[in-house]
């Protein structure tokens, strides 16, 4: 057990913090997180953090507003104990999809959240598979980003074949899909999507290239309703694809969406555990690959850079 480091977990994804604690052989601090009678959040860290490297873990799915306030309060509570340094791991960054102003009168939410987190004065920040390059650029805190390839590529290198083809479901996914295509030495085909900004509905989806007889591998950062994914899989099968497999880092499924997604044309879906999945969720075609090994490796590199 490394007694110079300690993990502090918010309430959003304690299972991930526990797995990280076991992987790094680092203590998981005891915390009390509740509410005052007036509904305001109350946090208390029960272990002494003085002189230690604190690794604060907080994903932001499900209840993003609560997650953000918890993060702010836990960071302040930890800093008041005078730790040696503080590192923050945010597996899923809330509000990161609003990475630019799409319509007049809207905020750039990702930039606003980045400013709040910068104000917590962490020594290092670990983020996972951000929605776009824009989001990382909004932060001033020293940071690293774990890519989707860091999580899924180790398994895919033994599973992909020359009959596989990488599919970018939209222009935003082209960058990450190209990383997989290059690493696996397979061809890339892109889908072109047009979405109505008012309703959010997809108006058209076009395929640029042939997928006849191919094992299609779709790569995306986040699934919420799965509307793009379902339409893409249907189109690929209509165009002669042999199979459709999906790889997604952040499975933020809207209520009732997963059943609809998996009842269609998707043969298999592999997701990561950056956000908690319902414990009763068991589908034979749904696989989970943990992000913990990639996060643990990144933390070891950061500690080494600090001389720990």
Automatic annotation (TrEMBL):
Describe the reaction catalysed, as an equation.
Answer: D-ribose 5-phosphate + ATP = 5-phospho-alpha-D-ribose 1-diphosphate + AMP + H(+)
Signal peptide (from-to): none
A molecular function annotated in GO for this UniProt entry is:
magnesium ion binding
**GO cellular component terms, semicolon-separated:** cytoplasm; ribose phosphate diphosphokinase complex
Traced from the root, the source organism's taxonomic lineage reads:
Bacteria, Candidatus Chisholmiibacteriota
Q: Please name the GO terms of the biological process aspect recorded for this protein, alphabetically.
A: 5-phosphoribose 1-diphosphate biosynthetic process; purine nucleotide biosynthetic process
Q: Which UniProt keywords apply?
A: ATP-binding, Kinase, Magnesium, Metal-binding, Nucleotide biosynthesis, Nucleotide-binding, Transferase
Protein name per Swiss-Prot or TrEMBL: ribose-phosphate diphosphokinase
Q: Which SMART domains match?
A: Pribosyltran_N
Q: Which PANTHER family match?
A: RIBOSE-PHOSPHATE DIPHOSPHOKINASE FAMILY MEMBER, RIBOSE-PHOSPHATE PYROPHOSPHOKINASE 2
Q: Which residues form the Phosphoribosyltransferase domain?
A: 166-249
Q: What class of enzyme is it?
A: transferase
- Give the source species: Candidatus Chisholmbacteria bacterium RIFCSPLOWO2_01_FULL_49_14
Sequence similarity = Belongs to the ribose-phosphate pyrophosphokinase family.
Provide the Ribose-phosphate pyrophosphokinase N-terminal domain boundaries: 6-118
Which Gene3D superfamilies does the UniProt record give?
A: 3.40.50.2020
Q: What is its EC number?
A: 2.7.6.1
């Amino acid at each position: 057990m490394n007694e110079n480091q300690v993990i502090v977990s918010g309430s959003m994804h304690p299972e991930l913090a526990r797995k990280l604690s076991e992987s790094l052989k680092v203590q998981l601090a005891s915390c009390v997180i509740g509410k005052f009678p007036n509904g305001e959040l109350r946090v208390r860290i029960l272990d002494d953090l003085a002189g230690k490297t604190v690794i604060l873990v907080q994903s932001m799915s499900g209840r993003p507003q609560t997650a953000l306030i918890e993060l702010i309060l836990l960071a302040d509570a930890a800093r008041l104990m005078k730790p040696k340094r503080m590192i923050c791991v945010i597996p899923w960054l809330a509000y990161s999809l609003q990475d630019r102003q799409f319509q007049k009168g809207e905020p750039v939410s990702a930039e606003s959240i980045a400013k709040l987190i910068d104000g917590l004065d962490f020594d290092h920040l670990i983020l996972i598979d951000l929605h776009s390059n824009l989001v990382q650029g909004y932060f001033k805190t020293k940071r690293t980003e774990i890519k989707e390839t860091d999580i899924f590529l180790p398994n895919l290198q033994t599973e992909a074949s020359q009959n596989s083809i990488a599919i970018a479901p939209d222009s935003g996914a082209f960058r990450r899909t190209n990383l997989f295509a290059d690493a696996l030495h397979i061809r890339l085909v892109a889908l072109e999507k047009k979405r109505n900004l008012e309703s959010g509905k997809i108006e058209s989806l076009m395929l640029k290239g042939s997928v006849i007889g191919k094992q299609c591998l779709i790569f995306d950062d986040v699934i919420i309703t799965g509307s793009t994914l379902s339409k893409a899989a249907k189109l690929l099968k209509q165009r002669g694809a042999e199979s459709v497999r999906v790889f997604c880092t952040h499975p933020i499924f809207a209520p009732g969406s997963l059943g609809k997604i998996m009842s269609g044309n998707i043969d298999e879906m592999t997701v990561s555990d950056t956000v908690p999945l319902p414990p009763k969720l068991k589908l034979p075609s749904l696989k989970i690959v943990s992000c913990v090994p990639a996060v643990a490796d990144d933390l070891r590199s950061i500690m080494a850079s600090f001389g720990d």
